[in-house]
Design goal:
Elements (H helix, E strand, L loop, with lengths): L8 H7 L7 E5 L11 E3 L9 H11 L2 E7 L6 H8 L5 E3 L1 H6 L6 E4 L9 E5 L4
Parallel strand pairs: 1-5, 2-5, 3-4
Antiparallel strand pairs: 1-6, 3-6
EC number: 5.4.99.62
Organism: Arthrobacter flavus
Protein name: D-ribose pyranase
Length: about 130
């Protein structure tokens, strides 16, 4: 049995296949997601798991070189959370952020019910 890190089997398996430039989206519970096998739905009930919890777990496992938030999240608690995790996000419109969903290697749906609690992470390398 795995002792630490991400325990969710499907999520853990996909994270292990990432390479430089792959996109990971952490999405709130309201984001309309594509019907593909790139979606791992962790939402249990409203607020669980939270955006922060999922972001922290993913960042502990994945090297990230850049991040994107919707410009509508500027100055919000979502921006504060992302910056508190050491990321310096760029901003695009919410519509442009949603347009990136089909190119994501992984989309993680959280139980977060905060508006615009969505982030796109671009994987980096550790060397």
């Amino acid at each position: 049995m795995k002792k630490t890190g991400i325990l969710n089997g499907p999520l853990n398996g996909i994270l292990g296949t990432f390479g430089h430039g792959h996109l990971v989206v952490i999405a709130d519970v309201g984001m309309r997601l594509p019907d593909t096998d790139t979606v791992v739905d962790l939402a249990l009930v409203k607020g669980i798991p939270s955006f922060t919890e999922v972001l922290q777990a993913v960042l502990a496992d994945v090297q990230v070189e850049s991040s994107l938030l919707a410009s509508e999240a500027t100055g919000s608690s979502v921006e504060e959370i992302v910056r508190a995790e050491g990321l310096n996000p760029d901003f695009v419109s919410h519509e442009d952020l949603k347009a990136l969903l089909p190119s994501a290697r992984l989309i993680i749906r959280t139980g977060e019910a905060t508006p615009y609690a969505n982030v796109v992470l671009r994987c980096g390398v550790t060397f």
